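Q: Predict the bound structure with magnesium ion.
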Amino acid sequence: MSVITFANTKGGAGKTTAVLILACELQRMGYSVAVFDADPQRWISKWFEQLGDKRPKGLSVVSYITASNLDLNIRELKNSVDFLLIDLPGARSPLLAQALGYSDYVLIPVQGSAMDAQGAANVIELLQYLDIKAGLHIPHSVLLTRINPMVTTRALQAVKEMLETKRVHLLETPIIERAAFRDVFGVGETLYTMDPQRVSNLEKAQHNAHMLGMEVFRRILPYVTARAQRSESKPLLNVA
Ligand SMILES: Nc1ncnc2c1ncn2[C@@H]1O[C@H](COP(=O)(O)OP(=O)(O)OP(=O)(O)O)[C@@H](O)[C@H]1O
Ligand SMILES: [Mg+2]
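A: Predicted complex:
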């Protein structure tokens, strides 16, 4: 099992949306995926409950993850899924360092704003601290979210410059601001079961999700393959 944690200490950065998109894309590639919902507001759990019989096969969600039950839940799941995605709450919590410590890869969703960038910087500093003090090197990338493809705002440019200065990897594929990504939570659907007549630019949202899924998969592959070779947990299937 490979663990990908989504973290930004600033609330509303787009973590849960990114988790939902990636979980569905990895599932579509044929992997079994579990999501740990560590947000007491349970957005992704509610979405999953609403899906009913439209739940993608091989996708599961575990609710009420806390600092005191994370270890146990990871141990229970270790041999039964290919990927575990952890959706953290949008604030500093004891769970953050704990979840990072379990991660094979960390994705840091960031909207093009100074406040989001500060929340990302908190996570990056913690990752650097774990690297220097504990020798725990956890690969990570920033993922831009809610981007308007037509304009690069000054705030977004500043975020990009900050990442370059800190030498933090930025994924090429951003998540574009789209109604489909917003609406998918309320309607009990996935991007692939929504009605294209009711959601504008659904195809573009699906394409965006697909491109992101492919890029993240390619990016994490060397790390998760190394992990699969090291550990006795079930090796990744379908890896060419
Ligand atoms: N690409 C997008 N297009 C449109 N709306 C989006 C997009 N990404 C996120 N949103 C909306 O922005 C809001 C915050 O997104 P989301 O819940 O994913 O952030 P979060 O980081 O998980 O927040 P929290 O810190 O509260 O857990 C939600 O209303 C969501 O629907
Ligand atoms: Mg969330």
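A: The pocket of magnesium ion (ligand 2) is lined by residues 15-16, 39, 43, 87, 90 (CB under 6 Å).
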